[in-house]
């Protein structure tokens, strides 16, 4: 990592430098004041940087050296599936015929894109066991909201207006309750039992005729498969609710269990997780949604269909919830995910979940002697540890995470799920080698020892990063959210 | 199963299974009830080797007519602009594209600083105090602006100009249904929002007045008058602005906008069949703690060194859950980076020059078409788009143009049956005089 501070791009700006190349205006020039009303012509120039092309490249190269990605090193961030991002995906997404096409071109002129999307839908239908798929949602949370809007439309179409509640486990991702609110529902929490699974008794208690849906991640955020899934589905379906599958953890069960077969009515996938569209420093993602037959009428429009061998958009969808995004989704990410699925094939995808699950269980068993293991059973693609033991020694989970930085690792997800004290949530993924896992395990063991013998090393970590722990309280109390020239 | 993305060897597997204490992989999946356990393999296409797949997908991509081989006059929210070569080189630094949300600031200073710079540039362009780290796209940003307005004012009616992008209006209506907001469209007469009708429709239950600048028909909206009406009832004034146009047009912040949203696609982001693009969201300081999405703030580390962190997270879904201001989690960070690099490359001077070239070239095209007998509808001050009325369906005209390697303008009849035979033409800085003259000639012959 680059230890030298990198000034802001505004601070290296120098009046008179340029970093662009535009052709000379080749049409007759008219005074702008003759075209636009004078009071709407910009008077004060925005303070954008003035730098040369090399300045720009050096600036961003320096910034990139102050950033950790999957290509830099291990990134076991639980529930985020930080797997390798194949390079052919990037090359394919950059083909002129995919990159430089306009979404409003006539359908006949974009049949290549439509065919790719159609075939991706077919693949995702088979992978999820659902009857139809929309590729429109931009990310996982967007898919959740889209799915819930469809469920609401389904109930309302049956004049069933009393279904105002969405049931969500206490271990769920924060996006679940947030999406439920935006879709116009109230949320009820269902507790986890001692095994870390949905408490069936509590579920029976909260489920009723006001239940619109239950949102479930399976395996859940503890990395545990909800083995009572059939009973759960029955409880929800019996009261007339729908079952929603949060696909964040699909990587664990590829070729092993399909949401459609488990009784789920609606599913969203995170193509940037399971299907390697890169995470991009926070996005763009892609969140396709699959549904069972009876929800097909409510899919966002337009719906991609095939008519006499030609792919066309069907806009005539009277029961559709409407559009959730302009155009047809994050096409560039769809191209990457499709390329990945085609690179893996059926046997490859099966090996993905198997290897991901082996990796997670291996790490869990190796670390169990050193950290509290709250749920001692086979996990799926991820597992949680608790830093309770270390906390008693004055070392918090946050400290452990920061100490991992000194070993060159991205820490696991911490303090989530909320139902585990001092939680560390570890997801190795299938693309990491045993050697990498072993070196991470060794680091974790060393940190556990340090917590006992020299806790200050952990408490004061990190020691090797470009910057030390940052004052987040000050950042929130007096926010500085932009650069201003003094 | 051997695959270049899967490093586990058979020996590894044996050793690891042993350490776990199981005999076979299957044991690890026994918690999946037999009844739902998937047997066998997916019925999908077999794995394709790299070179074969590359060839197949390249051929598939060639079945699309791309705007580098065709001369495009199609805009309507997505534009063919100059993308500095450097943009993709920065984006290809995998420290950026293989990272996730910068939760661990000590090893994410690069991304955090890049976002901080992006936020600054958006504030500069829009004339607003605070900008977030990005939204999915301009349309969902607009919808979120309506939700924010409703939450802030505790009102549930949203007035939107009918001259806003039709797909943004549709997205807004879907979001509005979710939060049970009423959406009322204000007509656009003569090509801009009808100020009188807005004055008639606004009331004490109006949360927001939403307009687009320049609007969907290419025209510059009278923001001064519109803002006055919005504020007369204490509604939020929301402007969806093309950020490139703000290189030559006064920023909405100057006219009292409360929220400014839009899409950064004109800055370094290819059309890519409609996405991913990059929404932006900017507000006044008053709304800072209500803004959706990630925010990066400046602070100091234990040694007093400047650094950057995600901040004001108490607004967000991972903290506030069902009380969050929005459900957004993943955003468009990599495309915000693309936009930052493009804005940096353009800089102060390039931005103005590029924006003015759009104005000049569109104006030239409009005048040449008029000279050649075309009828310009809703004529008036515009940025890089304008409308012409044809004497036959746009679809037919576009078919003919396509044969001449021209992608014609947007068929406005698709959004409004009153606008049959009306074509929205976009002329960006990339269209040469020769190309414009060709369009004029071909349209004249039709």
Can you give a write-up of this model?
The complex is a heterodimer of chains A (486) and B (446). Chain A is built from 16 helices and 12 strands. Chain A is of the alpha/beta class and 486 residues long. In chain A, the strands form 3 sheets. A 7-stranded mixed beta sheet of chain A has the order 1-7-6-5-4-2-3, with helices on both faces. In chain A, strands 10-12-11 form a 3-stranded antiparallel beta sheet, with helices on one face. Chain A is globular. Chain A starts with 31 loop residues before the first helix and ends in a 9-residue tail after the last helix. In chain B, the strands form 5 sheets. Chain B has a 7-stranded mixed beta sheet with strand order 2-10-9-8-7-3-4, with helices on both faces. At the A-B interface, helix 2, helix 3, helix 4, helix 5 and helix 6 of A face helix 1, helix 2, helix 3, helix 4 and helix 5 of B.
Radius of gyration of chain A: 25 Å
* Mean of all residue-level pLDDT scores of chain A: 97
Roughly how much helix do the residues of chain A carry, as a percent range? Answer: 25-40%
Report the count of strand segments of chain A.
Answer: 12
What's the story with the biggest beta sheet of chain A?
7 strands, mixed
Count of helix runs of chain B: 13
Oligomeric grouping of the chains:
heterodimer
Mean pLDDT of chain B: 97
Short characterization:
Chain A is of the alpha/beta class. Helices cover 36% and strands 10% of the residues of chain A. In chain B, the strands form five sheets. In chain B, strands 2-10-9-8-7-3-4 form a seven-stranded mixed β-sheet, sandwiched between helices. Chain B has a four-stranded antiparallel β-sheet with strand order 13-14-17-16.
